[in-house]
UniProtKB/TrEMBL annotation:
GO terms for cellular component: endomembrane system. It is a multi-pass membrane protein. Keywords: Membrane, Transmembrane, Transmembrane helix. This is DNA damage-regulated autophagy modulator protein 2 isoform X1. It is found in: Endomembrane system.
Length: 259
């Protein structure tokens, strides 16, 4: 009997991501740690106690994300065996596994290395998560086209393509706007105070564009994950088989081998 309810895994992943972002944002705003409008997502998990909520939720999400990436990899391996004419590349599928794993690892780093305390690891993790994730979903969209119409529909391929393109554009806008805005910032440049952007500061408009683009990227990522939920209904996994060798059997076997 195979286990087929993998849709629950992706559903829990989506709920965990949205709930973590929403709760940490609400708590950080309530306590006055970030402004109501236009904070970066990472800044909502920069100060206690919301940093604990942010880390806890994102650690769970990163684990589920990694499991989902592996299941997608195995799905493609099995589909290629069933449909060799699909021309799904084995090396590219393995590359996709590494990309997705890198993105999940980046999410874990972002969760545990707060931007206000250890910015360099945080930004490296964010780059792995967002850039690696964008490349991963782009590759999976290409695979979806290869799996059409047996698994993916044409409408789903179009939707994933649109989500991928919008995510890439939003990511470029986010990074470019931040790189231009930060040098113009004329407030306190300490990392712990960088969140206090105000309309009178130079570069404030570009900062708002950057933060809005980051939230859009996150939502597009979640949307991309949601598109795979229907397909997972058709995926099953056979439970592993265990063989237990009792100590008495081991002893008897060794004695028999000796004589």
């Amino acid at each position: 009997m195979g286990v087929t309810n993998f849709t629950m895994l992706l559903t829990i992943l989506v709920i965990t991501l949205l709930l973590t972002i929403t709760v940490s944002y609400g708590v950080s705003v309530k306590l006055g740690h970030v402004p109501l409008a236009f904070p970066y997502i990472s800044e909502t998990g920069n100060t206690q106690p919301e940093s604990c909520i942010f880390s806890f939720g994102m650690n769970i999400a990163s684990f589920l994300y990694a499991v989902a990436v592996y299941l997608r990899y195995r799905e493609l391996v099995h589909f290629r065996a069933m449909s060799p004419e699909s021309r799904i590349s084995v090396p590219w599928n393995r590359f996709g596994l590494w990309l997705g794993s890198l993105s999940a690892l980046g999410l874990c780093v972002v969760a545990n290395f707060q931007v206000g305390k250890v910015p360099v690891p945080h930004y490296l993790g964010a780059m792995c998560c967002f850039v690696g994730g964008s490349a991963y979903f782009a590759l999976q969209t290409w695979f979806s086209k290869r799996m059409c119409p047996q698994v993916s529909t044409k409408q789903m391929v179009v939707l994933r393509t649109a989500l991928t393109v919008m995510s890439a554009v939003a990511l470029v806008v986010c990074v470019a706007s931040a790189l231009v805005a930060i040098p113009q910032f004329d407030g306190n440049m300490h990392w712990t105070d960088q969140v206090d952007w105000r309309p009178e500061h130079k570069g404030y408009a570009l900062h708002c564009v950057s933060t809005a683009a980051e939230w859009l990227v996150a939502l597009l990522f979640v949307g991309s994950i949601v598109t795979y939920i229907p397909e997972m209904r058709a995926v099953s996994l056979s439970p592993p088989t265990f063989r237990i060798l009792l100590l008495e059997s081991v002893t008897t076997t060794k004695v028999a081998e000796k004589y």
